[in-house]
């Protein structure tokens, strides 16, 4: 079984090496003529004003947080799903209870307006 | 020195170095990226212990969700693009010395334990039993109470975060 | 005869025999074998993208009532090759102030995240990279690494538009990961294993017949995860100045698009593996190369459907996308999991056809009920043309300069 993970690791390294090699070949083949106008940051054709920062909305953070909660919930449900075929009915009811509690959380978020994009 | 030990050494050194760079980086965004590298190192270590499920969960939850949350938090609270201050404080040698002494004391105490020099145990042939793990999670004689309490904990986290973020939205807009 | 039944595995075994014959020792032989195998599979995937780009451009052209590329080579087959040659020789302009590691790692990470998905899918009964025990969760985790590539691109470009574009792209991708993960629970429940090889082996009727609601949610979520139309707000040329890849040029820009085309094909074959039975078909068990053929036929049909979506639908706005995800797909996915779990458990001891028909019936009921609810919740009334009172300028309400002498 360790061989499987070794293959995955080797595949990850190979799959990072191939695009990097392609980009290096392109870097060798391409002309290099930098000048200050070409290298300036793109701002729809105008000169940049002020440092490059962006106003970040709280809404992104709320979405990331709701995603985190549901991600952890799904991860807790995966082992149950693997064992599902051998489980009696009360075990299924327990998992349904788990899901219902989190469905309640989603409905709370909906009513509180946390799911609006603004 | 088997291949597994070589892999372990390399991954352990990379993880520890990334952990050090999290606190010693100049820019906050670099700290977040070093954190992602050290979490990846921990996931690979789980893989060498043949706990495949936990390695994947580490990548999925820690790198895929928590790191993104940390980066969003960084961007929310600082002007992250022009953030450039020295990474170390003035008297950094004193805490470093104390950390090294503490590590030496701990290592010395643990060396008096019998099995400190024991060789690597061979793991059983098929250590991963996901079906058994899943059955134990919902078994009344197993871990069903922590399973349900975990969902209530997640609900509490969700409600608390939405409440705080809603206040912030009212203050902002 | 054994070569014709399964040519690929025959060649693999022959190569392994060669490696063992060199006599290095088992550890080294396996490792070198793995490196060569990984190289062949990854390089094969990247060369296959050339064909995929041609296929998509021809099809999009036909949907838009024009020929696609048809100048270079028969039916324009050499067009993507010419494009590749051109893009290799474009200058790689690096703007000032970029973070070198993040800027250069981003395209590599985007492509490698998609390539890694090819390592765990079973292309036929005997031809797959590895059979890890957590196959389907691996696919989802690797998708998360791809999102990290987008974040690095947006932040490393030292450009505020790129950063905002990257943040919106990530908000879209992480939102659609929730119904993706939740609907992937249904095949795991029905087959009892997370490994993709086991999921394909267990699909006696295909899972799209057993759980069509879960297939529907999974398909929409995976189209949104690949960032293709109609969900391509984050990177379309007319939106937010092309988004997170605005500061990239040359092959680095090309790599993002290679990654996107490959991701579309990969999403198709993941859907085929998990819901459409993978390589299963008549006689695929005895003759593995037939399994490979069925796999590719099914994948191309689903890929055709994806391109059809791109050619027909207008783009979603970002708030419409988020509403669709959090208010429709996520509750629906949770309800489908609960319903499938309960119904399957109640009918576990009865005959197979009874259990499958019950599951199919429950799924169809859920889909119709959801459609009714969504229809009620959507505002479809509009004001009639000409019904609004528009203000008309008249001398009474036009502003007159004081002291100009004009009387109102």
From TrEMBL, chain A:
Domain of life, source organism: Bacteria
Record-linked Gene3D superfamilies: NADH:ubiquinone/plastoquinone oxidoreductase, chain 3
Top-level enzyme category: translocase
Enzymatic reactions: a quinone + NADH + 5 H(+)(in) = a quinol + NAD(+) + 4 H(+)(out)
Pfam family, one: Oxidored_q4
PANTHER family xref list: NADH-UBIQUINONE OXIDOREDUCTASE CHAIN 3
Subunit organization: NDH-1 is composed of 14 different subunits. Subunits NuoA, H, J, K, L, M, N constitute the membrane sector of the complex.
Protein name: NADH-quinone oxidoreductase subunit A
Species for this entry: uncultured Chloroflexi bacterium Rifle_16ft_4_minimus_640
TrEMBL record, chain B:
Bilayer topology term: Multi-pass membrane protein
Sorted UniProt keywords: Cell membrane, Membrane, NAD, Oxidoreductase, Quinone, Transmembrane, Transmembrane helix
TM spans (from-to): 6-25, 32-53, 59-80, 92-113, 143-166
One Pfam family linked to the record: Oxidored_q3
Record-linked Gene3D superfamilies: NADH-ubiquinone/plastoquinone oxidoreductase chain 6, subunit NuoJ
Principal location listed in the UniProt entry: membrane
Top-level lineage group: Bacteria
Catalytic activity: a quinone + NADH + 5 H(+)(in) = a quinol + NAD(+) + 4 H(+)(out)
InterPro entries: NADH_UbQ/plastoQ_OxRdtase_su6, Nuo/plastoQ_OxRdtase_6_NuoJ
Assigned GO CC terms: plasma membrane
Molecular function as annotated in GO: NADH dehydrogenase (ubiquinone) activity; oxidoreductase activity; quinone binding
Identification of the protein by name: NADH-quinone oxidoreductase subunit J
TrEMBL record, chain C:
Reactions catalysed, as given in the entry: a quinone + NADH + 5 H(+)(in) = a quinol + NAD(+) + 4 H(+)(out)
A matching Pfam family: NADHdh
InterPro entries: NADH_UbQ_OxRdtase_su1/FPO (IPR001694), NADH_UbQ_OxRdtase_su1_CS (IPR018086)
Protein's membrane topology: Multi-pass membrane protein
PANTHER family xref list: NADH DEHYDROGENASE SUBUNIT 1, NADH-UBIQUINONE OXIDOREDUCTASE CHAIN 1
Subunit structure of this chain's protein: NDH-1 is composed of 14 different subunits. Subunits NuoA, H, J, K, L, M, N constitute the membrane sector of the complex.
Record's function text: NDH-1 shuttles electrons from NADH, via FMN and iron-sulfur (Fe-S) centers, to quinones in the respiratory chain. The immediate electron acceptor for the enzyme in this species is believed to be ubiquinone. Couples the redox reaction to proton translocation (for every two electrons transferred, four hydrogen ions are translocated across the cytoplasmic membrane), and thus conserves the redox energy in a proton gradient. This subunit may bind ubiquinone.
Protein name, entry field: NADH-quinone oxidoreductase subunit H
């Amino acid at each position: 079984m360790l061989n499987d993970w070794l293959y995955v690791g080797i595949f990850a390294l190979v799959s990072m090496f191939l695009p990097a090699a392609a980009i290096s070949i392109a870097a060798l083949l391409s002309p290099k003529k930098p000048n200050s106008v070409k290298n300036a940051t793109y701002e729809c054709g105008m000169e940049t004003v002020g440092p490059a920062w962006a106003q970040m909305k709280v809404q992104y953070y709320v979405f990331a947080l709701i995603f985190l909660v549901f991600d952890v919930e799904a991860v807790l449900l995966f082992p149950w799903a693997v064992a599902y075929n051998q489980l009696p009915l009360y075990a299924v009811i327990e998992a349904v209870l788990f899901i219902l509690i989190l469905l309640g959380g989603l409905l709370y978020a909906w009513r509180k307006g946390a799911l609006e994009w603004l | 020195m088997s291949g597994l030990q070589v892999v372990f050494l390399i991954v352990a050194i990379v993880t520890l170095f990334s952990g050090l760079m999290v606190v010693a980086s100049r820019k906050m965004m670099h700290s977040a990226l070093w954190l992602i590298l050290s979490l990846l190192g921990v996931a690979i270590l789980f893989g060498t212990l043949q706990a495949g499920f936990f390695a994947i969960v580490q990548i999925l939850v820690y790198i895929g969700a928590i790191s993104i949350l940390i980066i969003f938090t960084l961007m929310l609270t600082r002007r992250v693009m022009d953030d450039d201050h020295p990474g170390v404080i003035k008297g950094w040698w004193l805490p470093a010395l104390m950390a090294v002494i503490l590590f030496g004391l701990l290592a010395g105490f643990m060396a008096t334990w019998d099995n400190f020099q024991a060789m690597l145990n061979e793991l059983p042939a098929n250590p991963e039993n996901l079906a058994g793990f899943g059955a134990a999670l919902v078994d009344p004689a197993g871990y069903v109470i922590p399973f349900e309490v975990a969902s209530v904990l997640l609900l509490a986290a969700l409600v608390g975060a939405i409440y705080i973020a809603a206040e912030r939205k009212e203050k902002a807009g | 005869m054994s070569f014709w039944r399964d040519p690929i595995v025959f060649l693999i075994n022959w190569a392994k025999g060669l490696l063992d014959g060199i006599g290095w020792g088992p550890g080294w032989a396996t490792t070198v074998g793995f490196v060569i195998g990984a190289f062949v599979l990854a390089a094969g995937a990247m060369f296959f993208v050339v064909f995929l780009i041609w296929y998509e451009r021809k099809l999009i052209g036909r949907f838009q009532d024009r020929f696609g590329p048809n100048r270079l080579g028969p039916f324009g087959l050499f067009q993507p090759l010419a494009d590749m040659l051109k893009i290799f020789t474009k200058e790689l302009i690096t703007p000032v102030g970029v973070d070198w590691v993040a800027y250069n790692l981003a395209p590599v990470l985007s492509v490698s995240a998609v390539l890694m998905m090819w390592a765990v899918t079973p292309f036929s009964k005997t031809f797959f990279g590895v059979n890890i025990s957590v196959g389907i969760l691996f696919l989802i985790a690797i998708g998360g690494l791809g999102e990290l590539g987008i974040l690095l691109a947006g932040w490393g470009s030292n450009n505020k538009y790129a950063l905002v574009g990257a943040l919106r792209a990530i908000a879209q991708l992480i939102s659609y990961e929730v119904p993706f993960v939740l609907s992937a629970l249904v095949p795991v429940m029905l087959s009892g294993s997370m490994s993709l090889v086991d999921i394909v082996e267990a699909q006696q009727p295909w899972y799209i017949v057993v759980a069509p609601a879960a297939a529907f949610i999974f398909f929409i979520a995976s189209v949104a995860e690949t960032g293709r139309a109609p969900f391509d707000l984050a990177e379309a040329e007319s939106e937010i100045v092309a988004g997170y890849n605005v500061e990239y040029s040359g092959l680095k820009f090309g790599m993002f698009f290679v990654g996107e085309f490959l991701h579309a094909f990969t999403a198709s074959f993941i859907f085929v593996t998990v819901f459409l039975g993978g390589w299963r078909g008549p006689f695929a068990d005895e003759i593995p190369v037939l399994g490979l053929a069925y796999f590719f036929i099914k994948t191309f049909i689903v890929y055709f459907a994806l391109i059809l979506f791109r050619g027909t639908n207008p783009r979603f706005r970002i708030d419409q996308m988020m509403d669709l995800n959090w208010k429709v797909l996520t509750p629906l996915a949770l309800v489908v999991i609960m319903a499938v779990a309960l119904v399957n458990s109640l009918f576990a001891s009865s005959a197979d056809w009874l259990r499958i028909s019950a599951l199919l019936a429950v799924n169809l009921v859920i889909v119709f009920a959801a459609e009714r609810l969504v229809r009620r919740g959507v505002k479809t009334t509009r004001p009639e043309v000409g019904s609004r009172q528009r203000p008309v300028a008249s001398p009474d309400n036009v502003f007159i300069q004081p002291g100009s002498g004009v009387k109102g």
